[in-house]
Amino acid sequence: MSNPVTPSEPQVWLLIDDRAGNRAQCEGVATALGVEVAVKDLTYEWLGNLPNGVLGASFAGLTSAGRAGLMPPWPDIVIAAGRRTAPVARRIKRLSNGRTRLVQIMDPGPTGAEEFDLIAIPNHDDANAAVNVMRITGAPHGVTEARLAAARQTWAASLEALPSPRIAVIVGGSTRRRQFTKTMAAELGSLASAMATSCSGSLMVTTSRRTGEATSALIGAITAPAQVHRWQSGGDNPYLGYLAWADAVIVTGDSMSMCSEACAQPGPVYIYGPSALITDKHRRLHQELFTAGYARPLDGHLEAWTHPPLNAAEAIATAVRQRFEL
Prior knowledge:
The protein is of the alpha/beta class. Helices cover 33% and strands 17% of the residues. It has 12 helices and 12 strands. The strands form 2 sheets. It has a 6-stranded parallel beta sheet with strand order 2-1-3-4-5-6, with helices on both faces. Strands 9-8-7-10-11-12 form a 6-stranded parallel beta sheet, sandwiched between helices. β10 (248-252), α10 and β11 (269-272) form a beta-alpha-beta unit.
């Protein structure tokens, strides 16, 4: 067990890179811990693309702006997510003479893994067992019961008049390895419409930056009553409102974070995961969610069922309290 963190109110830094999913995971764990945090936004130059084995424990991959906020006094705890934050976290620990405790979400790789006090790795990722590793289901996030309740009030005027059952459709899109095509988008719009029409309900649709050119095909295939928020349109993002008002959720399976957040509410969750879009790692997550009863594959049919809200952030926060004796 690590030495206890001595302050009654620990100083916590979040190392945040440019990936929204990583930010959501760090913020989710911080929320579950219930502590004040300092957010350190990291920006990278070309060296940041080098393997962690080359970078070592260093700030070498950061721009001067990214390094600006990394100075004493060093925090009691660092929470970070993703490969690129690992060298930075390790450097902070060394500069603190080992006093700073490191919590890393997702596998940081083999280089320096022993320097992390806790590594939270999803079950769908391959990883070696170690005393500092805990396994989790899905990705931690900040979609809590309290935030959903607040969002339900905030978006009531906009959403409560929609025909019930209301079905949220959370759309991601293309990834580095796979393309979300117009054909896929049209199929998703058709299946979602069939589900809503079969029960005289409605759709609440939100796209993302990654939906791209497939957005028009998606919207063109929707025939059920719907409120649609295009990512390009700007304005207040109804994402949390849609989850809060949803009687069921449809989510594209290209994002670990979106699938996990969809399961934060207790209603039915359906994952749209065509083989051409989904990697083996994503498919392993989907199967885990299916087996555990959190989600089902999308087939256009709506059934009434429930599941416990899913949020690995609570499990990570509990492990942090225990290991660091907070």
